[in-house]
Design goal:
By secondary structure, the chain is α+β, with helices and mostly antiparallel strands. The protein has a domain at 55-153: Alpha-Beta Plaits. The protein has helices spanning 2-30, 32-72, 99-104, 106-119, 132-135, 143-153; strands spanning 80-86, 89-96, 136-140. It has a three-stranded mixed beta sheet with strand order 1-2-3.
Length: 154
């Protein structure tokens, strides 16, 4: 039954998209001036929003840098961080040089996670909000080799 519902949803979405496309085409044929004005207004709105989005992204990345420095500045050999994006959400890979360093920095990892959670707490839709546990991956050099060896022996 769920498969049938998904098929109906997909067909309904395609039909709605087709109807909107047909109405836009009809409007351009019968009222080209209004259609042109609508396109210009849409492009202007997108262009006006772009700098705000870029500034917000830069502000959040600066806050992430500050949180990282605050959490790990006192370590003799701080870890490295790689910031990326996954499915529209920010993702962080914090890499330590050894397993002992990662275990010794456990309280600092928790502080970093708390700061990241504060920064991105309003990201994502209500049905699937940002999860700091899924966004941050702590690992160390040799971690993947250790996992491979563990699964080969099992």
């Amino acid at each position: 039954m769920k498969t049938l519902w998904a098929l109906r949803h997909a067909i309904g979405t395609l039909l709605a998209f087709g109807l909107v496309a047909a109405l836009v085409a009809w409007a351009f044929v019968h009222y080209p001036v209004y259609g042109g004005v609508g396109v210009v207004i849409l492009i202007a709105l997108i262009a006006a929003r772009r700098p705000r989005v870029r500034r917000e992204r830069e502000r959040k990345m600066k806050l992430v840098d500050v949180a990282f420095q605050d959490a790990y500045a006192s370590l003799s050999s701080p870890p490295s961080i790689v910031i990326s994006s996954s499915y529209g959400y920010p993702a962080f890979q914090v890499r330590f040089r050894s397993k002992l360093e990662m275990q010794a920095a456990a309280t600092r990892n928790d502080a970093f996670k708390a700061e990241i959670d504060k920064i991105f707490k309003n990201s994502g839709p209500r049905s699937r909000p940002f999860s700091v546990d899924m966004a941050i991956f702590f690992f160390y050099d040799g971690y993947l080799d250790e996992l491979r060896a563990r699964y080969k022996s099992a």
